[in-house]
Design brief:
By secondary structure, the chain is an alpha/beta fold. It folds into 2 domains: 168 residues, 3-Layer(aba) Sandwich (Rossmann fold); 106 residues, Magnesium chelatase subunit I, C-Terminal domain (Helicase, Ruva Protein, domain 3, Orthogonal Bundle), CATH 1.10.8.80. The chain is built from 14 helices and 11 strands. Helix 10 packs across helix 11.
Length: 328
């Protein structure tokens, strides 16, 4: 049996750094609470995050600030149609002096990778990135190199620009733990953004953690207790995306082309644990699952032509599922 009281006390101690990271992010990022929370969930769950939003919404700045707070290696890769796999993972270079090939490692060898405008690169580059995201390793020539921990890919894409872009393959989209949609700030936040950027002194970020601290925090997050009823709730939500008719949602059967994969179930459980950890709790409650459900599932539900004709979104389907599936 799990001692919940003891686990709660342990989580309370171990999660003290969450406030420090949030305060550090708030110094630089105005508003965007959901973005900061989602980055923390991805970080603590050892998962990758896809950020979708209009230009100028501090996506790049948020990722850079997070890496500065953790004193981790940060690489920014600008994805373009002429990008080659070697520009991402590295290549073998012949040395005339030693008369042998030497490995020159690419920008993928860092803790935080910002894949800016990821949908602008062709399939060859995406496949090179896939190995790093899933296997946490990179193959150059006949050698395979393990990537450092923590390793996190944070990709951005612009939802409105379609010229010169390649739709991401479903297999790759599924490898992102979360897809976070970022919205515009409100009027008060925008006023603060103007003042902050017009001021002489730009806020400085000082590192408060090391990559080793994050690896240890990830181990603690894995100890967060998930009851069997919560596991059943997660499975019911995922199965409702595949077989809506089994959950008295016959109207959704023709709207969903394909449901969420088993990876969705795993990521929903992991993200719920991380959210409970951020909330300083040693156990997962249904509200944790509901809080992360949209970000975990929105990119994993395929819409049919009929759904698109009716302007139905994956978010509306998730809302319908959460309102229908019985909460434990």
């Amino acid at each position: 049996m799990v001692d919940i009281k003891e686990l709660n006390e342990k989580i309370e101690r171990q999660s003290a750094f969450i406030d420090s990271i949030t305060m550090g992010m708030d110094k630089v990022i105005v508003g965007q609470k959901h973005l900061v929370e989602s980055l923390l969930i991805g970080l603590l769950s050892d998962g990758h995050v896809l950020l979708e939003g209009m230009p100028g919404l501090a996506k790049t700045l948020a990722v850079k600030t997070l890496s500065d707070l953790i004193k981790a290696d940060f690489s920014r890769i600008q994805f373009t149609p002429d990008l080659l796999p070697a520009d991402v993972i590295g290549t073998m270079i012949y040395s005339q002096k030693s008369e042998e090939f030497n490995i020159r490692k690419g920008p993928i060898f860092a803790n935080f990778i910002l894949a800016d405008e990821i949908n602008r690169a062709p399939a060859k580059v995406q496949s090179a990135l896939l190995e790093a995201m899933q296997e946490r390793q990179v193959t150059i020539g006949d050698k395979t190199y393990a990537l450092d921990e923590p390793f996190m890919v944070l990709a951005t894409q612009n939802p409105i620009e379609q010229e010169g872009t390649y739709p991401l393959p479903e297999a790759q989209v599924d490898r992102f733990m979360l897809k976070v949609v970022i919205d515009y700030p409100n009027k008060e936040e925008e006023k603060l953004i103007i003042r902050q950027n017009l001021g002489k002194d730009q806020p400085e970020v000082t590192p408060i953690l090391t990559p080793k601290d994050i690896v240890q925090a990830c181990d603690v997050v894995r100890q967060v207790y998930i009851d069997e009823k919560i596991e059943k709730y997660i499975i019911d939500i995922v199965f409702a995306t595949r077989f809506p008719q089994d959950y008295k949602m016959e109207n959704m059967k023709d709207m969903i082309a394909f449901g969420a994969s088993p990876r969705a179930s795993i990521n929903l459980a992991l993200a719920s644990r991380a959210y409970a950890f951020i909330m300083r709790r040693g156990y997962v409650i249904p509200e944790d699952v509901r809080a992360v459900c949209y970000d975990v599932l929105r990119h994993r539900i395929g819409l049919s032509y009929e759904a698109e004709a009716n302007n139905l979104t994956s978010e509306e389907i998730i809302t319908d599922i959460l309102n229908t599936v019985e909460v434990p």
